[in-house]
C-alpha cells in the first residue's frame, strides 16, 4: 500500500486486447524515478531504520560533556583553611571532597583535577581527530567496495562496540585511544544515512526525506541529558553502557532489514540484487512495475577501479573540483560558527546553562524549517541567505558588547540557528551536486570541512575571553566570506540524480 501514488502510470500505454504495457523510451535514471518516484510504506520503514544510527552518533559525539566533566567539590567541615575560592590543587586531599561519588566522572575517578588542559582535553580531541581521519579514509569505500549499507553498518558497529569497551577503561590513555577509534568509526554515519535515504526515493521526496537523519541526530542529542540525569551519582561508565548496548542491538536489526541503494548496486553491475530491492521499495505495483523492471538493461559501465581513483576523479575534472572546493569552503565557514557558538556562550554575560539549553533546543525547529525551505526554496538561495544572516548576527553580537545580555544571547541564538539551517541545506545540496559514483566521497569531504572548521573554535573561544572580536567577530566574518562561494555552485532543486561523472558532464553541457 503506498502513502502517495506515483504518476508513472500516466506515462504507460496499455495495448488494447493484450495483457502488456508499452513503455516510452526512458533512461536508467528515469526508469528508477518511475519505480520509486512516489513514497510507499516500505520506503517509510527503511527511512526510519536508516536514520536511527544518527541518534546514537549524537550521543557518542557529546557524551564527553558528562563523562569528562570536572565535578563540583566542597571543603571538609573541620578544615578552616579551605574556602570556595581556594585552588583545589594547593589544598591537601583531606581538606576537601567531591560533591558526588568519586567514580562520577573520569576527572574524579582518575584524579585528573590538577592535570594539564592537554591531558583533560585529550579524550575529546582524540574523538575529533578520529572523526577527521575516518571521514577521509572510509568515505571512498562507500562508493567503491562496501556500498552505502555495509559502510553504515560497519561505522555504527565500530562506534558502538568501542563505546562499550570504553566503559571498561582503566586509565586516561586507554580511554583516549578508544575514543579515537570510536570517532574513526562514526565519521561516515551521517553521510551514509543521508545518501541511503536520498538514493532510494524519487526527486520529489529527496530533500524532505533526507532531513529525517537530522531529526534523529537532534533527538539523540536531546536524549543524552535525560540519560545523564537518570544516572546522576552513578559511574560515568553507566553512560557508555546505556548508549552503546542499544546501538549494538540496532546493528543486529540493520544487518538483516536495511536494504542497499539500488543505484549503487546497478553501478557495480549487481543488477539482479538491484531489481530485487527496487521491487521491495517500489511505489507502484502490478504490471506497471514489472514492465519497468524488465526494461532495465544490464549495466554497461561497472566501477572496478582502485577506491582512491574515485577521489582522484573528483579532483581531476575542473567542474567537479570547482564544486567540491566551493562546498568545502562553505562547510568550513559553517563549522566555525556552528560549533563556535556552542563553545563561546561562556564568554557572554548570561547563564551558561540556559545558553546551552536554548541552543540545543533550536536543533529540532531548525530541522523543521529546513524541510520547508528545501521543499520551496532553491538550494543556492537558501544556503546563501542562511550563511549571510548567521555572519551578520554574529558580528552584531560582538558590536553590541557586554552589558546587553538579552540582545547578545538573542543574536547568538539567531546566528547558531541560521548556521544549523545552512548545515542541513549544504549536506542535501552536496548530495545532489555529484553523481552516484562519487557521491559518498564528495558528501564526506563537505562534512569533514565542517569538522575541520570546528578545530579552531577552542582557540578562538579562549582568546575571545579577552577580546570578543577574536570569537564572535571572527566567527561572523568567516561564515560571511565563505558564504559567497555558494554563487559558483549550480542549482540542483528538482533535478534528477546522475550515476557517473561522464553522465553528469553530458547533462551539465546540455543545460549550458
Automatic annotation (TrEMBL):
Bilayer topology reads: Multi-pass membrane protein
Sorted keywords for this record are: Membrane, Transmembrane, Transmembrane helix
* One cellular component term from this protein's GO annotations in UniProt: membrane
* Organism encoding this protein: Fagus sylvatica
Q: Which domain of life is it from?
A: Eukaryota
**What is this protein identified as?**
Major facilitator superfamily (MFS) profile domain-containing protein
Q: Name one Pfam family in it.
A: Sugar_tr
Major facilitator superfamily (MFS) profile domain boundaries = 46-494
Its principal location?
Answer: membrane
Cell compartment(s), UniProt? Membrane
Q: Identify the SUPFAM superfamilies for this entry.
A: MFS general substrate transporter
